[in-house]
Description:
The complex is a heterodimer.
Chain A: E1 5-7, E2 10-13, E3 19-24, E4 31-37, E5 44-50, E6 53-56, E7 65-68, E8 75-79, E9 88-95, E10 103-104, E11 108-112
Parallel strand pairs in A: 2-11
Antiparallel strand pairs in A: 1-3, 3-8, 4-5, 4-9, 5-6, 7-8, 9-10, 9-11
Chain B: E1 3-6, E2 11-14, E3 19-21, E4 23-26, E5 32-38, E6 44-50, E7 56-59, E8 62-65, E9 75-77, E10 86-93, E11 101-102, E12 106-111
Parallel strand pairs in B: 2-12
Antiparallel strand pairs in B: 1-4, 3-9, 5-6, 5-10, 7-8, 8-9, 10-11, 10-12
Amino acid sequence: EAGVAQSPRYKIIEKRQSVAFWCNPISGHATLYWYQQILGQGPKLLIQFQNNGVVDDSQLPKDRFSAERLKGVDSTLKIQPAKLEDSAVYLCASSLDGHYGYTFGSGTRLTVV
Amino acid sequence: GDSVTQMEGPVTLSEEAFLTINCTYTATGYPSLFWYVQYPGEGLQLLLKATKADDKGSNKGFEATYRKETTSFHLEKGSVQVSDSAVYFCALSEPGYSTLTFGKGTMLLVSP
């Protein structure tokens, strides 16, 4: 089966600019996650969707980050405005039923200068 | 809150050496435990998991045993290969939840 697709692969922006990342999960996977992985740290959950509803966004900095999952398939994560500390790899993952061993995409590496 | 602590890296080994990467955790319940691996330029892949005490997860020659008494889930492999060079992440999820809490990762470098 096709994996979790993410784009772009790399993005460099200046601080205070906006940026958007796209994720296409594995077909049929109801649960979708966005994680942030800062260099030298483990991934940290930003938001979890079940179909097109939000399950957990408690760690999403809502003053600048937003995410949506229209029609319960693709998802977009946006940052506006970006800060230097947002430099990280943004990982998308999906799972069939919200249980163990979900599949991660290759990530989008964001550099804010 | 939940947390996962892994040994600092990088771990540098010669091919065919024995590998241990330590992982301990703090959790409110009885979590499920995981090891993920991240090869250069790729996303995280599930390596193995254990869902209850004394369970042993295994895959591709790697093993880890869920030790409730020591709150540990150490990763081991009897003979590493150059192709095992990667970053290894220990992670947990609380019962009833699928979100993962990760450790900081341990880089493994295997030389021929």
